[in-house]
Amino acid sequence: MRKTILVSAAFATLISGYTLVAAGAASAADRTASCAEIVQISKKFNSDIDALNGDDPQYTAKLKTVYKGTSASFTDVAAKADDGELKHTISTAADQMNRLSSESDEVFLKTPQDKNSEFMQALLKLDNACPTS
């Protein structure tokens, strides 16, 4: 009986060790998985913007909310990404999007029109890393 308990305990330890190793490996997302998430988030971002009514007095506030939500989603993907360069690219885009959504309405609405802005450069780099089309 005692031998059975020891063997069972050793087997349980082996299995739980394997589970921990597998869980650790599964927690980091490879480039393909990360980019697939980025593409989905980008499509939702565009869809959410398209759904807004530009005549709504709350348009800018709602648009900022879309930016903040997208920034949070990008941050979640970056946290799981295992590719250092891609992780940095996603984090930079998320930071820029979050920063922009906290700016004045004037700056917020003007910046995306400036192709040379840090914001647009971060999104361009992200799009190059994970093409959406």
Task: Tell the overall outline.
Answer: globular
The whole-angstrom Rg is 21 Å
Helix segment count? 6
> Average pLDDT across residues?
84
Q: How many angstroms does the end-to-end distance come to?
A: 63 Å
**How many strands, which pairing sense, and closed or not: the largest β-sheet?**
none
Helix content: over 70%
Q: How large is the share of residues in beta strands?
A: under 5%
Low-confidence stretches: 1-26
Helix/strand structural class: mainly alpha
Structure summary, number of beta strands:
0
Order of SSEs: HHHHHH
Provide a brief overview of the structure:
With 133 residues, this protein is mainly α. The chain has six helices and no strands.
Describe the structure in your own words.
It is globular and about 40 Å long. Helix 3 (59-80) runs antiparallel to helix 4 and helix 4 packs antiparallel against helix 6. The protein has helices at 2-27, 31-51, 59-80, 84-101, 105-110, 118-129. Mean pLDDT is 84; it is low at 1-26. The chain has 133 residues and is mainly α. The longest helix has 26 residues, at 2-27. It contains six helices and no strands.
